[in-house]
Amino acid sequence: MNTLRVGLIGAGGISHVHAAGWRELGAEVTVYSHDGAKALAERYGFGVAPDLESLLARADIVDIVTSSRSHRDLALAAIAAGRPVICEKPLAATSAEAREIAAAAEAAGLRVFPAHVVRFFPEYAAIKAEVDAGRIGEPAVLRFVRGGEAPRAGSWFFDENAGGGIVLDQMIHDLDQALWLAGEVSQVYAVQSPPSVAGIVPEVVTAHVVLTHRSGAISHVQGTWGARGTTFRTSADIAGTKGVLAIDSGVDVPVTMDVPSAQETDGYLPPPAHAESPYTTQLRELAAAALGGPEPRVSAADGIRAVALAEAAARSIRTGLAVEVALDATIATESTFESTTESTTESARVSA
After folding, report:
1. Residue 277, Cβ density class (10 Å: 0-12 exposed, 13-18 middle, ≥19 buried)
2. What is the pLDDT of residues 57-85, one digit of tens each?
3. Domain boundaries, the chain
4. Of 197, 201, 270, 286, which residue is most buried, by most CB within 10 angstroms?
């Protein structure tokens, strides 16, 4: 069996978990980035490409781990070169760009997947399985909380015009979880405190997004970028018509279940067993699917939906009003795609 050749674009913070995952999977990795490629390659034993064209020539699959605003150009360049794509969340800075990526891949007969890694954490995968099995009945009220130390001051994460901001960058994980667990959304209402100023998010900030699902379920999604030293923590609970599921990374037993039939079972979901990094699990599953294997648990359409919800939340924050959404229309892509512009990838910085 031939060794999988991976083209890793980007050498910022998130690149390290991807690099470790690819190394564990035995892939032959080449790195391209305007900054940090040599150091990353030396640390993990990878090769370095002098430019994007060289990287694409050496890759069977491309993994994009750069700033959000650069995702469109890099993904389109990879697709034009005939390479399937794994792209860190969000799939693109806007839902229009995400649709463009998906349409280009479809026209080329290639696969593209957003790296929504929370779906691959054992505890989240476990509650998904229990919800799908009907253990708590129909989901009614869902609450997701995610918080930790803010990104480094002055980085692109705080610039909403650069594809950053807490909703699009951090909270998109739980927007995706809400969709995964409770289905399509019809209305979004959101608030942020303190507010952004001229498109720049405060360094310490909390946002809250309320999603009304088509089923009638309500999801409350809260995200916080805290002060230096803030401990990273996530939690989620799903109240259904027959019981409750709960996740909390800050307790010794992070997944619990409370349902009337608990006495007839063990009363708990399987505890998280991170013998393998969820990032490694994600890369294995997505790479296999990109190269013709079984369908993975996340799709390009999921990536488009999540970005569309983040956009609706941003609009609600700006206007103070609830925003109606129609995600079925949002994910529609043309069966063919023609690019009318030259790639501007080389002018973009790809180190974040």
Report:
1. middle
2. 999 999 999 999 999 999 999 999 999 99
3. 5-116+281-299+333-347, 122-273
4. 286
